[in-house]
Specification:
alpha/beta; Diaminopimelate Epimerase, Chain A, domain 1; 7 helices; 154 residues; 4-stranded mixed β-sheet; single chain
């Protein structure tokens, strides 16, 4: 799926609303949320039988989601071609939030995507992630914004 199709599902106005939701979210907790979207895997990844989870791990590292003071970064990775969603949490969060909670959010997003409700699916996921982060990483006296809030289209 070429990049322009990703931008059709997520036009600039949608990306702005997602960025705003992330900014508002991060005021209420010490976590950091990154959203990355791509159309599909490249030929090399397909030939290597790379799945969405493995690609999400690569993106997590490339975007340096792990680079937060409290190891509190979360990556919401969207692969539109297969409508696959992965959530990866840094070790500070993964110690407190069980994997089934992340998987539940992913399945809800995939269901929204099947209905072509792309923006709504991401915004709802940000809300659900926010609720988990507020519970496990409430804001402190110093709550810097450590990662870029703007979604990235790969």
């Amino acid at each position: 799926m070429p990049g322009w199709l990703v931008r059709r599902a997520f036009p600039v106005s949608s990306l702005r609303r997602i960025e705003q939701a992330i900014s508002e979210s991060e005021r209420g907790h010490q976590g950091e949320i990154r959203v990355a979207m791509e159309g599909g895997l490249g030929l090399g990844a397909l030939l290597a039988d790379q799945g969405a989870r493995e690609r999400a791990v690569e993106v997590f590292a490339a975007l340096r989601v792990w680079d937060t003071e409290h190891n509190s970064g979360v990556l919401l990775y969207v692969q539109l071609a297969d409508r696959k969603v992965e959530i990866l949490a840094d070790r500070g969060i993964s110690r407190r939030v069980a994997q089934p909670e992340w998987q539940d959010i992913c399945r809800e997003m995939e269901q929204a995507f099947r209905a072509r409700l792309f923006e709504r699916g991401v915004l709802h996921a940000v809300e659900r992630i926010t609720a988990l982060l507020v519970r496990h990483f409430p804001p402190g006296a110093d709550n810097p914004d450590e990662l870029v809030n703007r979604p990235v289209v790969l």
